Amino acid sequence: MTGNTTATTVPIELLRKYDRPGPRYTSYPTAPVWSEEIGRESYLTALENASKDAVAPLSVYCHIPFCRSRCYYCGCNTCIVKGDNSVNEYTDRLCREIAWTAGKLKDRKIIRQLHFGGGTPAYVGTQRLARILDAMEQSFIFDDGCEKSIEIDPRITTLEQLEFLADRGFNRISLGVQDFNLDVQQAIGRIQPQDQVSTILEQCRRLGFKGINFDLIYGLPRQTVESFTETLERVMELRPDRLAVYSFAYLPTFKAHQAKINEEELPVTEVKYELFAKAIEMFTGAGYRQIGMDHFALPDDELSLAQADGRLYRNFMGYSVQAAPEMIGLGMSSIGYVDDGFYQNISKLNEYGRRIDETNCAVYRGMKLSPDDLIRQHLITQLMCNFYLNIPVLEKRFDISYDEYFAREKKELKGFIDDKLLEVSDKHLEVTPIGRAFVRNIAMTFDAYLKGNAPGQKATYSRTI
Fold this sequence. Notes:
Blueprint: H1 12-18, H2 40-50, E1 58-64, H3 85-105, E2 110-118, H4 125-139, E3 141-152, H5 159-167, E4 172-178, H6 182-188, H7 194-206, E5 210-218, H8 225-238, E6 242-247, H9 269-285, E7 289-291, E8 295-297, H10 302-308, E9 313-315, E10 318-320, E11 327-330, E12 335-337, E13 341-345, H11 349-359, E14 363-368, H12 371-386, E15 388-390, H13 391-398, H14 402-405, H15 407-412, H16 414-418, E16 422-424, E17 428-431, H17 439-444, H18 448-451
Parallel strand pairs: 1-2, 1-11, 2-3, 3-4, 4-5, 5-6
Antiparallel strand pairs: 6-8, 7-8, 9-10, 12-13, 13-14, 15-17, 16-17
Helix pairs in contact: 3-4, 3-11, 8-9
């Protein structure tokens, strides 16, 4: 561990002050304001319009929902199934959806970014993954230097699977770690020794994977500042290229399996603040650069380099430098962004299967962005990705005056400025190192749907801290 002269220490009183429900801004407008009036027909029109720019690259997200067992903390769209029938049927339907979507995109074929998420994508096995990849290669063209990434569970991933992924061109990998403390692992139903993670990490490095990421979670049952500090120290010994440190959202009303967690074992709010602050302090002190409110990367990682140059990009697959603004979503619950609109597939396995069988399309809701949405989307994305907004660039791109368009928001930024979370000039907004932990709160200032400036609906959001 390096000296902590560059460590960012976030005051607990600020975490307490700004901890409130709010969007994560993986999209803007956020999913709760999307409408089921936007469905298959709207998506067909969007694909038709998108097909006209044949040389523009695409991002593709592919959702594999299956897991061996459900971890108690999980908030993802997953399925626990017995036998191979459901997995085989899902693979068949996913391949059919790939071919249908490619047909609607006509000559637009270039994929610059591919991500497999879940669930546990490797659960389906290498033969089925090969079928899915073959279907993509038959319908699309992977760009030279295409970023191919996948999420893996170290408990079930084999060397054979990693070798298969490397052979098929995957170059990015994300490992679910959560916490190394055995007591915490027992409380969340996920026993995963550090040696297991270390072995997988060494194999990934030997096979040439870059940008290897660990996912950690703070706020889990039985976590203490002391135990989480030990986990952070073990993580830094392994030194992955990237880290994500997510806040645990305990929502048993919406995720029934979370009821297996003993609510009394969850850390109290003040302790949760300390866990988050400790992660920021230790990772930045160890030389990691903060990427977004809860991501970190080594200084020579391409995410850090892109952020330094203002080139960092973000979508539902996470942070990236592979700027392909339009994204195709494939599989149950997946989300795409095409022709300035969001489109999401149905989130239930049986209904996804029925819709693919009947129409080859499972889109059930979405949103077409207005001119105001596009302006605010750009602004929020710049803050969330690069912690910086170039005001003249915004004004030129959208032919607006920042001072006039955001007159009310400018007044509301005063609190962030006073707390030294944000620096403002006539030319830019810049989030300070301490302010990076609160970038969601800053972005909320510009969210028209939270203010009632645009039609929407009440939503339940996770807390910003």
